[in-house]
Amino acid sequence: MKTRVYVAALAALPVNAVLFGIGAVTVLSISALSEHATTLIPAVVLASFALTLPITWLVSRRMMLRYWPSPAN
Fold first, then answer.
1. Is there a contact between 7 and 67 (Cβ–Cβ < 8 Å)?
2. Which of 17, 33, 40, 59 has the maximum number of C-beta atoms within 10 A of its C-beta?
3. Digits of tens for pLDDT over the chain (73 positions)?
């Protein structure tokens, strides 16, 4: 396997946890959404799983760079 796959596998769990946390806090903190939490929390779980792979693939590429280009340039 390539190194990028290993880096992506290591970064997948934290990325998934952050995505789920953002979704769960959003659902539970907005009163209109918290009324439907029984259906929205499973949707947040599925969405976090679906978004984890593409985000992790982009993050793993960035993590493997030796020097990051400056955003000002």
1. no
2. 40
3. 788 899 999 999 999 999 999 999 999 999 998 899 999 999 999 999 999 999 999 999 888 887 777 776 5
40 within 8 A of 33, measured Cβ to Cβ: yes
Q: Is residue 51 within 8 Å of 19, Cβ to Cβ? A: yes
Alpha-carbon distance of 35 to 11, in angstroms, equals 33
Torsion angle defined by CA atoms of residues 43, 46, 49 and 53, in that order, rounded to the nearest 10 degrees: -100
For residues 24, 47, 1, 11, the Cα torsion angle rounded to the nearest 10 degrees is -20
Which tokens hold the place of 44? 């947040």
Instruction: Confirm if 48 and 18 have CB atoms less than 8 A apart.
Output: no
Q: What's the token pair of residue 49?
A: 């799983």
